[in-house]
């Protein structure tokens, strides 16, 4: 609606509902779950924020769909070849992009091109994939600052488990002295299975793969890279640091031997793959590796596919959050939590 049209309607006493347009790039498990959840929550956005939320575009690697009037749930399966890419998203008129493509730490993945183009155009970004944030997080943060766009990434930083939000909202004002996180559900399941049932790493991995929660190539999880990526994103976007992967000492769970398991069981210790940040002499140092905990430590109780974070600050002591949800719904919900924060900050009626 044009400004003149809106003014005419206002003079006639007709209430107009501001429209906020959302696009989704990366239309796999998470992208589709996010679209479904967003469309099912349209009434909530109207009632809580006085806004008409429209999903105006969605795309995968080769095809997509768009409608400035807003896509309906029954149209999400009819993708047209060629409707994809950063220019497709900007042309859709979206105010907010939810990026849920593949994570590639080496190149930044397709998300990097989407975010560069859309942030430069002032389109707010909600990032679910980790590649662009790991590869070029600082540059993207600067682009967002320059254009005035909001950049949020709960989905990329352990999703349903609050991490960045906990630091930036709940613990605001204090100095973070230490962060410890069980950030990867696959490795937590593997260690849990090995310690609780005494099975080998290979057996536990086969079980996880059969259950569909370990990849056919599990090295991103088992060698600690997924934990490192999430830790880096928490460090850089939660604590405002500028760490790179090269700053982290990373080891995984792939070399855990039956002897290690036997020793930990004998000593009553519970092993976890942990990403940690520690403030020493005013500087934060990061690492990923196995740590062991006594059975009464909250981290020892984080079982199966759960994740956890423990944050120690100078003034608020120690805070622990433990959680997980069913995927991909939980990650979709984390992206839409970011969406609501953007609505509150930039669009909602006061
Ligand atoms: N699954 C989870 O529970 C979870 C949790 C937290 C974070 N994540 C992150 O969320 C992201 C998505 O996960 P997922 O499980 O939804 O993966 P997925 O099912 O493999 O979907 C990835 C999507 O990205 C699309 N894509 C690839 N290149 C693209 C491009 N150039 N432009 C637009 N789209 C492109 C793919 O399109 P095609 O279908 O055309 O190939 C596919 O639709 C990943 O980065 C993952 O690390 C996932």
Structure description:
The chain folds into two domains: 3-159 and 329-347, Rossmann fold (3-Layer(aba) Sandwich), CATH 3.40.50; 164-323, Dihydrodipicolinate Reductase, domain 2. Helices cover 40% and strands 22% of the residues. The chain contains 13 helices and 13 strands. The strands form two sheets. A seven-stranded mixed sheet has the order 4-3-2-1-5-6-7, with helices on both faces. Helix 8 (185-197) crosses helix 9. It is globular, with a radius of gyration of 22 Å. It starts with a helix and ends with a helix. The site of NADP nicotinamide-adenine-dinucleotide phosphate has 25 residues, from helix 2. One of its GO terms (molecular function) is homoserine dehydrogenase activity. Belongs to the homoserine dehydrogenase family. NADP(+) binds at residues 26-31.
Shape: globular
Rg over C-alpha atoms, rounded to the nearest angstrom: 22 Å
Stretches where pLDDT falls below 50 for ≥5 residues? 1-7
User: What order do the helices and strands follow?
Assistant: HEHHEEEHEHEHEHEHHHHEHEEEEH
The CATH class of the largest domain turns out to be Alpha Beta
- Work out the helicity level: 40-55%
Hetero groups bound? NADP nicotinamide-adenine-dinucleotide phosphate
